[in-house]
Write a structure and sequence with these properties.
single chain; alpha+beta; Elongation Factor Tu (Ef-tu), domain 3; Helix Hairpins; 4 helices; 35% strand; rod-shaped
């Protein structure tokens, strides 16, 4: 009995000792770990409560763009040539041959006028010219007769049959005759010029197109009284017709200052019209104004677009795309991120600690959704998307992407 119980007591003692050691280790672990765990939990709770107290703001990353870019600008289509066709003579409209929308070529007759007064004046001028020509013939005949007389006086004087005075008078008469011929020649020339002038005025009874184009206005009708310089149907004289040449057609766009130096003559451009979906018209920059508009700080640029079918009409609104090389770096941010007030133009950036900084910037192109900043930010910054008017430097916020 004793021999059996002795090993049992020894095993039970070792088991009890191990249990006591294990309990001591666990107790020591909880005594060291639990205070630190509780402190960390309390700190996390306090930090979470502090963050919950900070205002939550939505931020977006500023995106840098280098190298070339594409400008998309609104443009206006304008005829390459346009003219108001006025009358050069006074009369009544006998007939008009073209109407709005008609295509005409240079020299085509647009309308015909009845100008009876000019016709009568031309007829009178022609008869006057005949009189002057007859007077010239008479003066020539008198001069020739005086010359023959002077020659005979020279022969008689050589034979001492006539006096020296009679001979001098004969030669003087030759000079008078020559002067009369010159005067008659001048009269004929003046009469001829008068006939040409009146003939030109009579030809103005045919109103012709100055160049090839399309008629866009007609302000006359049969029987309308037309005065030299316009149609007298209103208090102020109006042109008879308006003609426009639309092949090629011009497109004018206003390029912002930030990109003005990048736009040069010869650059290719594409023109799109909302009412012509799927159609893109190729053009080329032909000239720039060479100076910025002081009011809008934009450069007026002209683009010529071939228009052989006449699809593009003057006065249309267009979207113009120009590929340009950037002379500077730009950074894109949401348009709502830019703050413009008495302090200037800023964006509100948020650093890693959640502090707000007001950064001055220079604006570039704004497409309504994004705005390009020429200077002030480098890209990668977190900017407030919708900063309030009370945002200030140094305030702490909780940034939310």
């Amino acid at each position: 009995m004793n021999a059996i119980s002795f090993p049992f007591h020894r095993a039970f003692g070792r088991w009890r000792s191990g249990l006591i050691v294990s309990i001591a280790v666990v107790a020591l672990f909880f005594l060291g770990f639990w205070p630190r765990h509780a402190a960390q939990k309390k700190l996390a709770a306090e930090s979470s409560a502090g963050q919950q107290d900070l205002p939550r703001v939505k931020v977006a990353a500023a995106v840098a763009a280098d190298g070339g870019r594409t400008l998309v600008l609104p443009g206006t289509l304008v005829a390459s040539r346009q003219a108001l066709v006025n009358a050069r003579a006074t009369g009544y409209v006998a007939r008009w041959r073209v109407d709005i929308g008609d295509r005409v070529h240079a020299g085509d007759v647009l309308a015909e006028l009845e100008i009876p007064e000019l016709d009568q004046q031309l007829a009178q001028a022609r008869e006057t010219l005949k009189q002057k020509e007859a007077a010239f013939e008479q003066a020539t005949a008198n001069r020739d007769y005086a010359g023959v007389t002077a020659s005979r006086q020279d022969a008689l004087l050589a034979e001492s049959v006539t006096t020296k005075q009679a001979n001098d008078q004969a030669h003087a008469q030759v000079k008078v005759g020559q002067a009369n011929v010159h005067a008659a020649q001048a009269d004929v020339a003046a009469a001829q010029a008068n006939v040409r002038q009146l003939g030109q005025l009579v030809s103005f009874g045919h109103i012709v197109a100055p160049f090839e184009g399309r008629i866009t206005q007609r302000n006359i009708d049969v029987g309308s009284l037309v005065t030299a310089g316009g149609a007298s149907g209103a208090s102020n004289a109006q042109p008879l017709f308006r003609i426009e040449a639309i092949d090629p057609i011009r497109v004018f766009v206003q390029v912002p200052q930030a990109f003005a130096l990048s736009v040069r003559e010869g650059l290719t451009a594409s023109v799109a019209i909302r009412q012509l979906p799927g159609h893109v018209f190729d053009g080329r920059v032909t000239r720039t104004a060479g100076t910025l508009d002081p009011a809008s700080r934009t450069l007026n640029v002209e683009i010529d677009v071939p228009n052989p079918t006449g699809e593009l009409l003057g006065g249309m609104f267009a979207q113009v795309t120009i590929a340009v090389a950037m002379s500077h770096r730009i950074v894109r941010v949401p348009s709502s991120a830019v703050i413009t007030d008495a302090r200037g133009v800023h964006v509100a950036t948020v650093d890693a600690s959640g502090m707000v900084h007001l950064t001055p910037v220079v604006r570039g192109l704004d497409n309504g959704r994004e705005i390009e900043l020429v200077s002030g930010v480098n890209g990668g910054e977190q900017v407030l998307v919708n900063p309030g008017g009370d945002v200030t430097e140094g305030v702490h916020v909780l940034a939310v992407p």
